[in-house]
Amino acid sequence: MPSLTIWVYDSTLGAAAGEVRFKELVRRGAVLVTDAVTVTWVKGTHRPHVGHLRRRSAQPDGSLLGGLVDLLTDDGPEGDRRVADLARRLAGSGIDQEMLSQARCALAPGTSALLVLARDVDLAVVRPIVERGRTRRDVVMVHADLTAETVDLLRDAVQGSSH
């Protein structure tokens, strides 16, 4: 079953440590990744930097999760409208308004995040490794088990809501 997991760290360096641990899980075959990105949002900048697990780029390059980051970090009423529209388009898919709003509120300048779209994730194994050394208040995790069609729905919705 596919799932979307978002870890938002309260510092710009938190996701880098989570990414190192996550890559080890991938290398060991504990997680089957469809898409994964890191987000680093330095205070004083208008947009976050999106990095891919296998390459780094200032632009999301059409990545599904890069597009989701763009949507979640769109400031103001237009961003709120886009997130609400995405939630409506994904109704019943496993991704809801509460999940998107929680991720949107947590992701802000001075934070970092690890977003993972994967299959067959055992959170009991993955979560303690990705969050190692962090206290609960240092990292916010949101997770959704998705329907088989959700990845395509999410891709269509994110591409359809781009500026």
Query: Beta-sheet strand percentage?
Result: 15-25%
- Sheet with the most strands, sense and barrel status: 5 strands, antiparallel
Query: How many individual helices?
Result: 6
Q: What is the count of β-strands? A: 5
Q: How large is the radius of gyration? A: 15 Å
What distance separates the N and C termini? 31 Å
Instruction: Provide the succession of SSEs.
Output: EHEEHHHEHEH
**Which percent range fits the helix content?**
40-55%
Strand order across the biggest sheet? 3-2-4-1-5
Which structural class is indicated by helix and strand composition?
Answer: alpha+beta
**Uncertain stretches of 5 or more adjacent residues:** 55-60
Task: Please state the overall shape, judged from the principal axes of the Cα atoms.
Answer: globular
- Determine the mean pLDDT: 85
Task: Describe the structure in your own words.
The model is unreliable at 55-60 (pLDDT under 50). The chain is of the alpha+beta class and 163 residues long. The protein has a 5-stranded antiparallel beta sheet, with helices on both faces. It has 6 helices and 5 strands; from the N terminus they run βαββαααβαβα.
List the helices and strands and how they pair.
Layout: E1 2-9, H1 14-27, E2 32-41, E3 49-52, H2 64-72, H3 76-89, H4 97-106, E4 111-119, H5 123-130, E5 139-145, H6 150-160
Write a brief caption for the model:
The chain is of the alpha+beta class and 163 residues long. The chain is 40% helix and 23% strand.
Give the key terms.
alpha+beta; 6 helices; 163 residues; 23% strand
